[in-house]
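Task: complex structure prediction.
Instruction: return structure tokens for all chains below.
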Amino acid sequence: MKEFALIFRLRDISDFKPSPEQMQERMNWLGSIAAQNKLVDKGNTLLPISGSAKTVKPNNVVTDGPYTEIKEFISGYIVVKTETIDEAVEIAKGNPIFKIGGSIEVREILKKD
Amino acid sequence: MVTKSDREILPHLFRQEYAKMTAVLCRHFGLRHIEIAEDIASDTFLKASESWAINGIPENPTAWLYTVAKNKTKDYFKHISVFETKIKNDLKPDRPKQENDFEFNEQIISDSQLAMIFAVCNPANNTESQVALALQILCGFSVEEIANAFITKTETIKKRLQRARNNLRNDNFQIKTLTESEIQSRQENVLQTLYLLFNEGYFSKSNKQFIRKELCSEAIRLNLTLIQNPLTNTPQTNALLALMCFQSSRIEARINEKGEAVLFDEQDKNSWDKSLIEKGNYYLINATNGNEISKYHLEAGIAYWHTTGSKGKWKSIMQLYNQLILIEYSPITALNRTFAFSKVYGHKKAIFEAKKLNLTKSNQYHELMGYLFAEFDIQKAIEHYEQAIKMTKSETEKQTLQKKIKRLKRNNGG
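Output:
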């Protein structure tokens, strides 16, 4: 089994606060992964709002919020375990984030042993 | 004279009191000498059954029993000191020390019980052995009774118990007044054992209803002991007891006279025990005195919704299953979650979900698929039910499934 991080990206800060329906869809998706016994870590939600997010750059430059150069911002992540990356991609496809123009990056985790 | 109803009460009373007395004696002797404690307790109850049969039950049976036990303990030590003065070369250095006479009162009995629960629910043993040991030491079950409950050979249980007792001894766990930190570090394990003990009864493979009830009520009794002590009266303990109460309220309804399982939808809701449901509500409210949501909270929440007739309940149940499966994966939780999913989103979507579970080797998976397909593809439903029949070892389950197939064929006009 390989492990993959699914990294969620959103375009608009206003999409960050989900409606109860969106929340339920998201929980169903997460529950479905866990029900397949493929969830390694239910991860975390990363707050993008000012006061909760800063970016530190060279020469002690600190800016508010996530990278402004990139339009999208990371809103959270989870870790799944599957045989192949394609399987992890299939899991990602079921996430309701695409309905609001978000995206998911799938990245294999390098295991050091 | 002992009346007929007395005779029925006695074995039950004996079993519980025997376990309590062993705990009190063990605290006196130390856990390493549990066999001495058990021998004295057995002797005491043997004497009681002989004496009470002739003279009737004394006014205060507990006091009577403990006085006899006290005397037997004195005799035991007298015997030992004779042995010691006569045989100077003592070969057994770790025999119990004689202390002052042991005292007994409600508090000591209850404290000893609690300490014993923590001693028995010891991670030095695997969970299966912990449950067997709990039944023997905490509940006073005989080896045969435990074998019956587990549907296992007496010899196997005997060996399992012996190994478990040795492990306890080697672990050198002391039975004593528990400290707060000990309780905190081990309570989770204690609750897990009680949870398994209850499930062993509730989902027992044995079709003997009285065995099931006995295991469930023992788990509840031990859980109550935890609740009566302020140190162990935590939100989780209350949540677990709430779960046990809600489940127990349906214990009569879920098995028919023939010992066959009655599905939830087909249960006579009037035969649910309302006083147990109320107790469940009471403990569930107590369980909310904290921030942590344990799996017992979630399972009690699900069991609570099942006791209501509320129409929107399946949505709530579905969300509770989502949270539960995030805390702990198990095939049965995955299947139950899919069942709840079908109630909210329909059978077709649920079949899509079920296929992802990779549980085709489980008979319960095929039973669920049979149920889901029955709504629109009877042929497929029958195939899955037949597959489940092939896989299950339980005779009553086979019969229940056969009935379902028959009903489907009848409805299909075939």
